[in-house]
Amino acid sequence: MVRPNYNKTKIMMNYSEYTAQIMSDPSYYGSECSTADAAAICERLAALITDAFPGIEVRTWNDTIGGSAATLGPDQSVCDEINLWISSNWTAAL
User: Fold this and answer.
1) Residue 80 CB contacts under 8 Å (≥ 6 apart), including other chains
2) C-beta separation of 92 from 48 below 8 A
3) Any idea what the Cα angle at residue 22 is, between residues 21 and 27, rounded to 5°?
4) Per-residue pLDDT at 82 exceeds 80
5) Residue pLDDT, tens place only, 38-67
6) Cβ(5)–Cβ(58) under 8 Å?
7) How far apart are CA 20 and CA 23, in angstroms?
8) What is the dihedral of CA 84, 86, 88, 94, to 10 degrees?
């Protein structure tokens, strides 16, 4: 798993102002993924994210309840780095 590497002069230790949003729809994880499988994947992925980004809030979303996969927070460059980390590491939750 790749560790986040933001600003080389300052590494954030608290991401409490940020929210990562992850997809909970089973079809997102494959045609044979059940609702229970998707819930377990989301739980494991949330644990990976909170381990890498202490203090971050993780929300699940799907097409029914709406949302997006974008990370929300006050600094867009940090959001972009979190999104990149998630896209590079989400398969570890499978």
Assistant:
1) 71
2) yes
3) 145
4) yes
5) 999 999 999 999 999 999 999 998 876 656
6) no
7) 10
8) -170
Q: Which is nearest to 93 in space by CA: 13, 38, 28, 19? A: 38
**Amino acid identity at 23:** M
Phi, psi of 72 (to 5 degrees): -110, 145
Q: Which residue type is seen at 59? A: R
For residue 3, the model assigns a pLDDT of 56
Query: Taking the model in full, what pTM does it have?
Result: 0.81
Q: For tokens 């097409």, name the residue.
A: 63
C-alpha to C-alpha distances, 27 to 24, 36, 37, 63, nearest whole angstrom: 9, 12, 10, 11
Question: If you average pLDDT over every residue of the chain, what do you get?
Answer: 87
Strand partners, 83: none
Residue 81 structure tokens = 């780095």
93 within 8 A of 5, measured Cβ to Cβ: no
